[in-house]
Amino acid sequence: MYKRFENSIVCCMLIASLLVYSCGSKSDVVAPPPSVDPKVPTLNNVTVDGVNLNNARYNISLKPQIKLSFSQPLAASSLNAVSLVTATGSMVSVNKALSNNDSAIILQPVNNLSFLTRFNIIVNQDVQSVSGGTMTGGFTGSFVTKMDSSRKFPKISDEALFDTVQRRTLKYFWDFAHPVSGLIREGTKHDSKIVTTGGSGFGIMALLVAAERGFKTKAEVLHRLQTMIAFLKNTAQHFHGVYPHWLDGSTGEVIPFSSNDNGADLVETAFLVQGLLCARQYFDGMTAEEVQLRDDINTIVNRVQWNWFQKENDNVLYWHWSPTVSWAMNLKIQGWNECLLTYVLAAGSENYSIAKSVYDNGWAQNGGIRNGTIYYGYTLPLGPNLGGPLFFAHYSFLGLKPYELSDAYADYWTQNRHHTLINYNYCKANPKDYYGYSDSVWGLTASNIRGGYAASSPSNDLGYIAPTAAISSMPYTPEESLAALHFYYYVLGDKLFKEYGFVDAFTLDVMKNDGPWFDDAFLAIDQGPIIVMIENYRSGLLWNLFMSAPEVKNGLSKLGFNAPGL
């Protein structure tokens, strides 16, 4: 009995010993898994439709595939860290998926995106690798969808297109004219009582086109002109025969253009006289109505005291005079700008003429208006660097025919054509990288811009194109201007061609100007040159009328100009 017990104890001790030995064996110990440092994912690159985002910011398809490639495989939760939003912050519904062994995220909109709209790709800091590392910092990248290049209006001949544009733009000067005076309102967003002197001159010329083209009957145009001219002769306020920039269309009283500009504006009056002389030459019949119209125009034209605006017999003309602050504006009319016409009319005045020395010393600054620099392969005879805004080549030359017109300072066809080609080539080169500029989208001049007004030019380029700039340059650059007209009408027409023709300005630049932006306003001084210069290109009507006026011939001859028929 005792022996069996002893043997049992020995057996137990042996088993215990084996168990202890076995537990102490290194080969039988289970080691913990080795520790792994979480790897931080970084964004390597972003592609849109297979092209790196840096090279694919514009003209993106409406349903692009966006791929974001990372340095590490990502956790599935990272899909929630990536989004596509509009420029205003609205979320875009997208499909998301991991690819490339989970090291890339693919985004694609569920529905087509809007045309010509900026979108932002946003990656926040919730991107996490499968090893647990979290992305440092975030990412935002932008792209712009393509333009709707579909044709908005049926294709018509260029002659029919000219008719369409002239007829529609005429509505500004016919339908929108002031109901009492018939004079032309400043703009569709201005106080409706404000009429503009210079814009009324442009409007008179536009009405002559309407009569010539049959958009209105000659009798209708004559009646409208009778209303306008009677108001100017008998009611509208003037100073030494010179009208203010703005008038009240009902009362004829001055509406100040600025605090010190509450009286005579010699340049605006010159633009008015330009139109009046064309009307006088056009209505040359012997009916009582036409004879009276011519007499009334002569009364208005002949009482303009051009030489009084030399101030104290200075050898220069001054732009403004005020009945309350006199010459406080103190702005000399010196070139090169839009005011050549003022000196021609002043020199040719029957009663209040200026001497040639006023032109040479004042306007031409004894040759100081010369430029002579070559820009984009074109020598610019006169004016500021790169030519300035294109209205310099329009306003005085609605009537003055620049072809074969020259003086001691320039050949004016070369001046205006080269000025326009410099403006065109600048926009085509697009040194400021504004989206949309091209050989079909060009033309910098004074116009509305978003939130204001600016005299745009190659040296003051804010990214806004004014349709009047290229279209009113049709005589100088017919091929380039027609390409712009086609684009504005056929491609942008649903946003650009409205009740009174082309709106004043636009920008297609979504990145820099938060565009696209299309103005919803029209201005008289921009609409007028469109009608008139298209007509000068088609028939030379206004050029021929204005250049036939004795006052114009006398002025040009006196100032030393060379032109056919002088």
From TrEMBL:
Residues 1-22 form the signal peptide. The keyword Signal applies. Keywords: Signal. It comes from the Bacteria. Residues 46-145 form the SbsA Ig-like domain. Residues 331-549 form the Glycoamylase-like domain. Pfam families: Big_5, Glycoamylase. This is Beta-glucosidase.
